[in-house]
Amino acid sequence: MTSGNPPWYEIDENGQIMVLEVPSRLKSHPEVIRRGLEPTDPWKVGVVYSTSMLKEPLYYIKILDTDTEEAAIFQQLSRQVDTRNHTIPGELTPPETGHPLLITPAMSDFSALLIEGIEYMHDLRITHMDICPGNVLVADPQIDRRYSGVEPGKVYLIDFGSSLQLPLGPGSQHAITLPPSQFRPENGITCFDPYSWDVYCAALTMQQTLKTCYRNDPPRIACLYADWLKGKERGCKAVCHCRPTARRARQVLTGVLWLVRAWEQVKNVLYILKSSLSPPS
């Protein structure tokens, strides 16, 4: 690991890590001072901190690992002007000001509607590699307007520390050794088609979201869709066919949503007809 990379810790006089303290190195970073930011709360100790939740606007500050491709991938995705691009708007601090930081406005957690964002990355032959509820956010309607690219209610993907720029696209890329991530594959599998891994993690994210939002009675069709996305992993060493591609998943979801809306309209028409044919009381 390159010297100076995270995690950054605050150490007490006994040499113990003070997990709730913001590293003095971050607080004294020239860009943090110039922007008037006051990081107060750890979100990923040694790596991600936020300003006070009691003071708006709220910002997240991530200490980037220069041994990864995160900064380069974030810059590439940020330059893409496309409604399907779900990369969170933010700012990379200039290299001449010290260790690179990624500063982003706060978002509220939500994991729906992320398939389009994954498909867009896959079209660019980029895989996220760490899709999980904590890395899928939706813009708060009251978001700081300094970030003009933020659309209220739009889903955004964050944390590209494990992301990969691949030579081959979906349907051609063979399995690779998985990097560390929030989710773990079943049956001790260590190699995965990276595009398929993103879809697999999207499925697990949806399942967790359903359990959180609908503790007792989640929508059956949503559960079936998430199960279909997850597939039955067989540990493919070549191109994976255990689950759909992100594009196929988006196409099927579009069809499912159309059918659901159409059925709702049919039910409304049937109700109106029934009401009009019923004898007056």
From TrEMBL:
Spell out the InterPro entries in the cross-references: Kinase-like_dom_sf, Prot_kinase_dom, Tyr_kinase_AS
Q: Where is the Protein kinase domain?
A: 1-281
**Protein origin, superkingdom:** Eukaryota
Q: Which PROSITE patterns match?
A: PROTEIN_KINASE_DOM, PROTEIN_KINASE_TYR
Q: Where are the transmembrane segments?
A: none
Example GO molecular function: ATP binding
Identify this protein by name. Answer: Protein kinase domain-containing protein
Q: Which organism is it from?
A: Trametes cubensis
